[in-house]
Amino acid sequence: MSNLLFDEPGPRARRRIRIATVAGTVAVLALLALAVRQFAANGQLDAARWQPYATWPMWRYLLSGLWSTALAAVVSAALAMAAGLALALGRLSRRRWIRLPAAAYVEAVRTIPALLLVYVVLFALPRYGLDLPLFWKLVVPLAVSNAAAFAEIFRAGILSVERGQGEAGLAVGLTPGQTMRMIVLPQAARRVLPSIVSQSVGLLKDTSLGFVVSYAELLYSGKVLATYNGLLIQTYIVVALIYLVVNASLSKLARVLEARRPGVRPPRRRFARV
């Protein structure tokens, strides 16, 4: 199945991709081997330095940070998806006074880093009497930033539904709103579900900006823990592995959902002579 953004690579392009993948893998493995060698030379791999992470109190503290990360990510995602759906419908509206502001919001917010929005909520809003609780100082800017991305995902899903589906709803007497709610949106939601999960992975990583507002998410908890026990490298390696496991699991879920979409077949390995 061809991609909307680029053509499917031919035999030569696939061969170059395989060569680049192998070369990149070898380079990464070489860097990892060099890093392990340096860690070993400086005593960072000594068992005594890793022994604290075999105890429950350490993991209980890190898992508490992971729970705070997950909570912030879930609430941010829920708000961003609700706002994104409203923006997507606004961009598809026939009324200019709705369509233009929605389009302006999406185009503007997509160019603003989430960190800048965090600084706005942290420093600018309190000057005007709006000092949010610590949790919302992280959640609000993440929701505002990701709403634009979810809006484009939902809009693409709505536009991918065949025009005849909406026309059939209108033909049986449904109003445009009922047609969108009962016929178009359910189909669009199923089609964009893998993209929603992928965007949620990025949102989960963005919760690491919580260190700016001193919100006790996973990365901030790791920073506090490393300051307390002096095991800087070990702590951040463990935190990185936790992020790796969680994000890899979500990415796997996105691929599974993509493969189970109606009309989508898993890619087959093809061999061609060059």
Describe the structure.
The structure is a single chain. This protein is mainly alpha-helical. 75% of the residues lie in helices and 0% in strands. The protein has ten helices and no strands. α3 (56-91) runs antiparallel to α4 (96-109), α3 runs antiparallel to α9 (218-229) and α7 packs antiparallel against α8 (176-206). The longest helix is centred in the first third of the chain and has 36 residues, at 56-91.
Helix-strand pattern, N to C?
HHHHHHHHHH
Count, helices: 10
Chain oligomer state: single chain
Q: Rounded to an integer, what's the Rg over CA atoms?
A: 23 Å
Average predicted confidence as pLDDT: 84
Q: Could you list the spans in which at least 5 consecutive residues all have pLDDT below 50?
A: 1-6, 266-274
Tell me the fraction of residues in β-strands, as a range: under 5%
Descriptive tags:
disordered C terminus, 274 residues, disordered N terminus, 75% helix, mainly alpha, 10 helices
Briefly summarize what is shown:
With 274 residues, the protein is an all-alpha fold. It has 10 helices and no strands.
What topology does this entry show?
Layout: H1 11-41, H2 47-50, H3 56-91, H4 96-109, H5 114-127, H6 134-160, H7 163-171, H8 176-206, H9 218-229, H10 232-259
Helix pairs in contact: 3-4, 3-6, 3-8, 3-9, 4-6, 5-6, 6-8, 7-8, 8-10, 9-10
